[in-house]
From TrEMBL:
Broad EC category: hydrolase
UniProt record similarity statement: Belongs to the HAD-like hydrolase superfamily. SerB family.
GO molecular function: hydrolase activity
Span of domain DUF4072: 3-40
The protein's annotated pathway: Amino-acid biosynthesis; L-serine biosynthesis; L-serine from 3-phospho-D-glycerate: step 3/3
Cofactor(s) needed: Mg(2+)
CDD domains membership: HAD_PSP
Originating species: Keguizhuia sedimenti
E.C. number: 3.1.3.3
Protein name as annotated: Phosphoserine phosphatase
Pfam families noted in UniProt: DUF4072 (PF13284), Hydrolase (PF00702)
Length: 281
């Protein structure tokens, strides 16, 4: 295997130390911030040791098969809240009602997998009943920001000819705007019911939960006539795990421990574009 180490400010000395721990045969600089340690004899024990050492050094650590390329993939599928963007939109909407702590607590429990997502979303949306719908635009204008590396990743995706999918347990108000703003190919998310300019506290139609996220990725792959192994799937919460399973590359971005443990790649420090050095080998 190759071991790729990357950080926001990467010290070559720290890289060499971890490479020695992994008994790498060679260390190659991919960029100023990313290094590839080649011909590493992979084992679960080494993975644990390397990840611990890398985390302490502020580095992201990924074991990946040699020769993986951008051209191996055709679809980039991303979660929205806390993945493509830095916020949880529903928490920020709730803040307009003075309910952010209560809603955020449910959000966190759902992302850790402690509450079933469908139940958690129903409970959270109910708390928004009566809120002026203009709050959605305020959240978009005042609080929504792209995660670091998002634009660089999407530029690379376009250059590589990938299709892009934003599939979210969040809301169409935001995914529609992200699609237009970023030139995404597909989006799928929940519809907030609005009546007389107010949120009703209900979702219109079926809820986009973990199973629906997985089905959405599968539908896109079928439409593109590609295998799920040609998809990169990125997320941060427990409700992303089903769609990540079976992907050619599953990526946990600033994710909960349960997600980091099951993903092929865990990006804790670098931006979304941290997947690009992995595919330069």
């Amino acid at each position: 295997m190759n071991l790729v180490l990357q950080g926001l400010a990467t010290d070559r000395t720290q890289v060499e130390r971890i490479a020695a721990l992994a008994k790498a045969k060679r260390v190659v600089a991919i960029s100023e911030r990313a290094f590839r340690c080649e011909r590493v004899e992979f084992s679960p024990e080494l993975k644990s040791l390397a990840e611990t050492a890398a985390f302490e050094a502020g580095l992201d650590c990924t074991f990946i098969e040699p020769g993986r390329r951008l051209a191996d993939f055709k679809l980039l599928a991303m979660d929205m809240d806390s993945t493509l963007i830095t916020i949880e939109c529903i928490d920020e909407i709730a803040d307009m009602q003075g309910l952010k702590p209560e809603v955020a607590k449910i959000t966190e429990a759902a992302m850790r997998g402690e509450i079933e997502f469908r139940e958690s979303l129903t409970r959270r949306v109910a708390l928004l009943k009566g809120l002026d719908a203009n709050a959605l635009q305020r959240v978009y204008d005042e609080r929504l920001q792209l995660s670091p590396g998002a634009e660089a990743l999407l530029a690379a995706a376009r250059e590589s000819g990938w299709k892009t999918l934003l599939v979210s347990g969040g809301f169409t108000f935001f995914t529609d705007r992200m699609k237009s703003r970023l030139g995404l190919d597909y989006t799928h998310s929940n519809v907030l019911e609005i009546a007389d300019g107010k949120l009703t506290g209900r979702i219109v139609g079926n809820i986009v939960d973990a199973d629906e996220k997985k089905r959405t990725v599968e539908r896109c792959c079928a439409e593109l006539n590609i295998s799920s192994r040609q998809a990169i799937v990125m997320g941060d919460g427990a409700n992303d795990l089903k769609m990540m399973h079976g992907a050619g590359l599953s990526v946990a971005f600033r994710a909960k421990p349960v997600v980091r443990a099951q993903a092929d790649v865990a990006l804790n420090f670098v931006g979304l574009d941290g997947i690009l050095p992995l595919l330069a080998a």
